[in-house]
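CHAIN AND CONFORMATION:
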Amino acid sequence: MAKRKMSRLCSPVGLICVAALTASAQSFQVQCPTSTITHPDGANAGVNNSEPSYTGPTVFAAGPHGYLTPTSKVNGAIKCQQIAGGDGFATMADGTQTYLFAFGPLSGLADIAIGRPGTEPPNIFNGLFPGGGTPVPGDPATTNGASSSPLLRGQSRELQL
C-alpha cells in the first residue's frame, strides 16, 4: 500500500523533473540590416553607414520583383536601435485603473545621455560589445561612460567608446 502511494507521488514529480531538464531558454540575435529594398547596397560598400546630404526627394521606379526601388537621390540611411517594451495596469490617484504600455531604449544610451539620437548605423550597431569581454550588470551604460549623476545646463559629456 505504501509503495503504491509512493509511486503516485513520484510519477508526477519525475515528469516535472524531466520536463525541466528538457526545457531550454530561447535566444535571439540582434540584427541591423546593411541593405534593404529602399536602401540598397549591392556591393556591400557601406553606403548605409552614414547619412547622405539631402539633395531632393528620392525617386522610385518599379524593380525587377515588382517593388518600388530608389533610382536616384536616395535619402536617409539605415538606423537601428534595440528597444524593450512593457505593459500593465496602473492605479491613478483617484483610484481609476488605467492600462499603460511603453517602449524604452536598450542601445545608444550614451548618445542619448549627451543629447544625441540613440539610433545607430549598421557598422556600429552590428559591432562587438564596446566594453570588450562579457557584459556585466548595468552594461552598456556602465561601460561606455554613462553616469547616474545628471548633467547641468550647458554641461556636456563626451561619448567614450
